[in-house]
Each structure stands twice: as structure tokens, then as C-alpha cells.
Amino acid sequence: MQVERTRRGRVPESIEQARAAQAFERVFRRLKPRTEPPLLDVRFRAFASATSTVRLREGRMEIRISDLLESAPEPVLEALAEILLAKLYRKPVPQPASSRYRRYLNRQDVRERMSEMKQQRGRKQMRSPKGQHHDLEALFEDLNFRYFHGLMARPALGWSVRESRSILGHYDPAHHAIVLSRALDRPGVPKVAVEYVLFHEMLHLRHPESHNGARRCVHTRAFREAERVFDGLEVAKMILRRL
Predict the structure, then answer these.
(1) Quick one: 56 exposed, middle or buried, by C-beta within 10 A (0-12, 13-18, 19+)?
(2) What is the mean pLDDT of the chain?
(3) pTM of whole model > 0.85?
């Protein structure tokens, strides 16, 4: 559902839309008490994640909020407003607002809904696992046999559409997919470096991230301990640092 509300002259189309607009207006008045709030154009969008945005255009403040947050409590909507408006006006994001917002997204029921949204709405863009120089499926089977007794079910595997040197690999639990950066599919990148990145992402299947309030731990102690068994760990890290 898409809804819209302006600060003046328009009847709210839903309770949720009105609540969100009021939250942004309250935060705006606290942030800029001497400035009259602009017209507010608030819409909930069927994004594939918890994405929310704000921008000023011709005297209107356009706010697009993931419908994941449509039923969020007012303190959470205010926290989101504090985060977005702070970024819009280039001010520090208040730590309490950031913490409150993260705690809400880390709730189990919210994480489950977010995962469902990604599965239903998001398309995983990646290229074939058989690259020009490295075959991810062959590497996965070899690593599975060497480190996981051949018992790990193979997820979707592929090379990234865009080449990235900052994110060399990631595991997407919503699509049960491992994607490695095309920057690694080069003749000058040794096999051990590609194996290590793939092994690292495979460990995310064995050791899922943990959540505790606002804290989200991706690399748990068990994860780090399991990573140390990789043969050639230091050599692989040295090669990747050069990238």
C-alpha cells in the first residue's frame, strides 16, 4: 500500500501514514525549532528490505518508508525520523535513536518478516558460478569435503554483477546464496585467496549471526575459532590485503 500525507490541507489516508508524518514533524520541530516544517510527503513502500529515505524537493520533504515499519511503535518511528533528518541536515545521528531503531529491527518477529520480504520481493543478482578463472561450485565441493565432511548442503553460488574490492564476498540468508566479488576472478588472484573467501562465507551457514538487543554479532567467537582451521589462512589474508 502506498499512502501520502502533507503537513497542511490533506486528510490522512491511513492511521499509519498519519502516525509517521506526525513523528517526522515532531522530530523536525525539535531539530529546527525556529523553522517552519516543510510540506510532508510520506509514503510506505513495498521495499525488499528496511530501506527508508528522505529528501527535500521544491519545498516538500519526501519520505519513503519500508512497509516493514508500517505498524512500528511511535518511539521507533521517531527514532527513524531522528536518524533520517540528522543525515539530511548533516548532523550527528543521536545514539539513543540509533540504538532504539536497531533493537526493533533485531526483534525476532521483525527479522522473520524482513527475511520473508527479501525472498518474495528481492531478486538475487549474480553471475554464473563458473567464472573465467575459478569455478565456485568446484571450489565449494572441495572445501565441503575438506572442512565439513561433505555434509553441507550447497547454497546458490555466483560471482557478483559488479566488481567490488571492499566487499569480497557475502552470504545472503534470505536467498540462501553466496556471492563472491568478480575482483577475485582474475588470473593473478591465487586459488587459496578465493578458497578462503568462499570458506569464510560457508562458515556463515554453520555459525549464523546472533542478536542481543541492539547488538548484531556477525562473527561470533565460534565463527572465529572455526575460521582458524583454514589451511593457508595467513597467506590468503596477505594476498587479499594487496587487493
Answers:
(1) exposed
(2) 88
(3) no
